[in-house]
Amino acid sequence: MKIKQRPRWFISENDATPETVYHNRRKLLKQLGIAAATVPVASMAQGSLFNLFGDDEPAVDRRAALSPTKQQGDLPLTPEDKILSYNNFYEFGTDKTDPAERAQSFQYNPWQLTVGGLVNTPVTLDYDDLLKRFPLEERIYRLRCVEAWSMNIPWIGFPLASLIKMANPTSKARYVAFETLYDPEQMPGQVSRRLGGGIDYPYVEGLRLDEAMNPLTLLSVGLYGKTLAPQNGAPIRLVVPWKYGFKSIKSIVKITLTDTMPPTTWNLLAPQEYGFYANVNPYVDHPRWSQASERFIGEGSLFSSRRQLTLMFNGYEPEVAAMYKEMDLKRWY
Ligand code: MTE
């Protein structure tokens, strides 16, 4: 008889809820209860942000509720207001607070995502397809940024593998290339290299095909029970939990199957600092700082956050190490 083994990060609704998650959920529910009588919780969070920047425009929360099928993972959560206000999205500016401030009027519906290149069945998905074509799952993953901070987020999405299978890659396909929307009228950072961190836009990323097909690799359309906010990469972004956060490309419009390793934004900008693989690795330092530990962004102020040791492959070693067993990870950083 074949015994179906559930992945380590899977927790069904019936399994015990860890205390930390329970408390976070209770808190969120409490906030939502209050919000029901006044304004949505995200408007409150974003509204206070706008006030911080002295912007009188009230923030309009365009996020819709999602109903993912599973609650997965058992990490203590980073509060929702942190993931909504401390972001990297250079198309909207290089300060952590720029995306939340400048991306609010970003238009992401209608949207088109195409899957092409070395495939037998090219695919185009529109905005509704992104939210409804695949069953949505919730997974709590750690996002470990190369800048040595991390957040644990309840992502909502579907495995990238489902979409790639739909496109039916040809036998020549070896890599998957991703591209963010290029629209300088909407994304101020794309107009000026100075504002946009010296990046040659559109932002591009890539994975090896086996990495892309790994069940952990998620295309995310939401977090914390709702569709993505613009600053988090609405309407669809990648989440590859065992790699540094810069691989998690936002607001994707194009996915291309290729036979050669695709160029990636940070590798083009500073190849000695950012490799193609970008696997989280406490033993391979960034040339300018250590990767041995990280600041976990949880409760409290951003800068009082506690430090924790960085785990090999960001804690996902059992699921992903086999893909790299023949590789020198110091060379292929
Ligand atoms: N995608 C695009 N298009 N542009 C960006 O600047 N920044 C990356 C990644 N995806 C980035 C991007 C980096 S460096 C990180 S750490 C994560 O997004 C941050 O995601 P978050 O703001 O949702 O936490």
Protein described:
This protein has 333 residues and is α+β, with helices and mostly antiparallel strands. It has a single domain (22-324), classed as Oxidoreductase, molybdopterin-binding domain (Sulfite Oxidase, Chain A, domain 2). 21% of the residues lie in helices and 20% in strands. Strands 1, 4, 5, 8, 9, 10, 12 and 13 form an 8-stranded mixed beta sheet that branches. Strands 3-2-11-6-7 form a 5-stranded mixed beta sheet. The longest helix is centred in the first third of the chain and has 19 residues, at 19-37. The protein binds ligand MTE. Ligand MTE is lined by residues 83, 87-91, 143, 145, 180, 203, 232, 245-246, 248-251.
Instruction: Describe the sheet with the most strands.
Output: 8 strands, mixed
Distance between termini? 41 Å
Low-confidence stretches: 1-5, 9-56
**Gross geometry:** globular
Name the helicity range.
10-25%
- For the record, the count of structural domains works out to 1
CATH class: Alpha Beta
Element-by-element helix/strand order: HHEHHEEHEEHEEHEEEEHEEH
Annotated CATH architecture: Alpha-Beta Complex
- Structural class of the secondary structure composition? alpha+beta
Bound molecules: ligand MTE
In what range is the share of β-strand residues? 15-25%
